[in-house]
Input
Amino acid sequence: MNTIFKPDTFRNDFTFANSPAAIKRFPFPFCEDTYTYSLDMEPHVAGPAGSVYEYPIDIDDHYVSDMADRAHVLKDDPLRCQAFPHMMTAQWDLLELLMTSMARAYPHQFTLHRNGDQWHWINKTLGIDDKFRFGDISTLSYEPMEYIARQCQGDFTLLDQRDNNLWLDGGIATSQADWSLDFSLGMNFMEWHGAEPVAHDTGVSDHALNSLLNVQQNSPVRRLNWTMTLNPRLDNSPENYDIWGRDRATVTPANVGDKVHLRVELQAVWRLPRSNALVISTRTYFLKMRELLTQPNWARRFPRVLKSLPAELVDAKGITRYRDVTLDWLNPYDDGQATPTGCLFK
Amino acid sequence: MTTHNSRLVHVAQVQQVAREIKRFELVSLDETPLPAFSAGAHVTVTMRDRDHVWRNPYSLMGSPLDAKRYEISVLRVPQSRGGSAYMHRNVGIGSVLEISAPVNQFPLSNVGRKHIMIAGGIGITPFLAMLAQIKQDKRNFELHYAVRSVFDGAYFDVLRAADLPNVHLYRSDRGERIALPGILASQPLGTHLYVCGPQKMMDWALQTARREGWPDESVHCERFSAQPSGKTANVKLARSGKAIYVGEHQSILGTFSSDGVDAPSLCGDGQLLHNDHTLSVNEKLTGERATTCATRLDGGSLTLDL
Amino acid sequence: MLVSGNKSRPIYRGLEPDTFAKHNIIVTDGDGCAAVIEMAIAAGDAFSKRCTVLLCTKDLSDHERDESVRALGPATVWFFPTLETLLTRLDGMLRTARMGTRLYASGSEPLIGSTVKTALAHGIDHRSVSTEHRGSNKRRVQCVHCKGMTEDVTSTAVRCAHCGHTLLVHDQYSRRLAAYMGVRADAEVLGETPASIGVFQ
Output
């Protein structure tokens, strides 16, 4: 199987678009017609062939352009990739997790040969062929997390587990929905999620923390998170808010279909064996409102969810300025018919 | 049958390492390596007799740098009809055991500047894995290991022969005692204390640390010797509506796994005998959280949100 | 963007003496000193004898300073003209300190935050530091864009002392940086900046 990689951009001219096949596999996150808040996790087990759940780490046809965008962000702002010194073992754990997952799932693109601690990694797509000694940072061109994350889609955060809490002690974030790695480094789980208005009132973050503390080796879990983004811009960091924030005042009925995007994060959590740390991979998928219309049940359900979103979440998600214009644009496509119960994607 | 996250292993070696302690070496049934683990982790071993299932947690004591084999040590608890007696009586070279994935509830603090380890008796086992890890990472440490006698203390001779500069050994049959106040008084900031051994020793160490002005955040305990039994009790699971009978020698988690209940974390309102030290004193008093692997019940019934 | 209630804000539980501690290092300022005096009186002379108080005298008259020293009884008191000079001394003290040393901070948030940050660098868990907020609500603010720190912020919006942009001061707090996050007020619509309100007096 040879994947054709799309040369799309996630900045400037924003040529990103989904192929019909990519729309079909988009992880549409709403299982009901009204908004419900949940941090519930489900086992991260293999899903149907072709779905975003088919493999533990999903590599798609935007791989090359995604990695180019990451390189661009890191060049502009090296603070997007940071880890405390005590997270070095976790970094190696992460490198192992990603390399073994990618090589197993996509053998035509990635190959890993291991002979004791002598490792040989080949990334055919990006033209990388490196031999290194596992555990010896002097044999890699970057620290392990940055080395492998420059070759793997998705942001990664490393959480140290101490005293019944999780501490955000490392990570790489170049495609984040409005949170700052540099600012959040060293926070515990509750502090890190402190900005979410609903989480604390309902006790869901306590529950979420407990579930994460108990994630075991070989039993990763996952959830879908969503927000909205203007233009398919991966880098929605607070650092660059003065760049992407401008877009919020530019939505008109004429450009909703191409400019307004549903932004879905597939968050998967693994227990890392040597460090006892957790890693959260946050993989972002975009869907244009125009693309949403191609799936009639999504076109029915999404405006209904958007309408039911509590005011404080409209604010927290930053969609205050353009929710109504988006709803006005979407409403004609909701014919009022009932939607099937449960999730609407495979 | 194995549960979703357990595996079968072969017993490759059994060795009597002290009067009541046997060491078991576990290897993979096939060529696939055993999962890597972190120092301080344990596996839960499932033992099945004709009409009994036991699930006992045992610390992985081998080097985390070498996951080709797992090593555990099992103290036979007197008057026990439980798993430790089964391990001593029925498990030998070639036996097949079911083990869980490694779980670490007694990790080394990654932010600690120095690590003081206090071990009593069978409580030495997690520290043996930590020693290997600490030496690899070139971290500062001291190990203080007390045994009743050379016949009772596992690996005492091994440690004595190794003659490591920061390892200190004590025999109580010779009146040797760990001079903890003095040890605690001279440590640099950022030092963490770890204690694993009999209940009395842990109480003494915790109290001594507090008297020496150590903050609670720098002190970590794991009770390792056989836990006191509770009374028999019924546990109700609120969400699934299941009811489970907990025998006096069983922990709640042990019964969950045999009844096919996946128990990640728990909220209870019963009178819990907390046999672990991962919960803060406050959490124990309020009964808000219970670690099921160690918790036994003081009779009656308990409802859990599962 | 709204400035909302946020769980990353530190909780100051109030000074609490560890009467077992071998040595107590107490960081405080003019306003915070009252809380230190209350603790010292409640815990007694045996405790006070084992205390070293690092007092930032920036906002104190000589008379107020001398009164504070008298009230602190047998504790050793050192004066520092600024928080910066105080922290340099604290850093030096912690370098050679042993376990059994307990750390306390009482006063403004920047003072407490800086103390905790210094403690972290010496392997002290932040929860081991006993803290009490007294006096001004002024904040240290980090501009999330240029990463520059603006000191003694009493209002939002505020001008970044480095890049000059107008920042909204958020409730998101970073222990590592000992600062609140400042985000450009006119990021969405250029020139649309709210009036500055003195909410952190």
